[in-house]
Design goal:
8 strands, globular
Amino acid sequence: MVSVNIKGHYVSFDDIYDSLVTTGHIRERTFKVGSKVHILGSEYMICQVDYAMCCLIGAINGNRYSQPVKVKTPVAITLTEMKLMGYKGE
């Protein structure tokens, strides 16, 4: 994790991002079913495998990257939900 020194305090970029979203200064990044993401050089697609359940499936081999995760809205999957699927924001 990357952090920066602000007035003698080390703060991670994740903490800064979360604070900006919480205060309404920026909107949280969202994803949707059918979007492609890259993890460790491999391409994965966000797939809905059941009602409100999504997971990452490999574009080349068709294997699941992780177990399905319950999402609130398949067309607006939050970064928190993506992290549960194994996405790290790469």
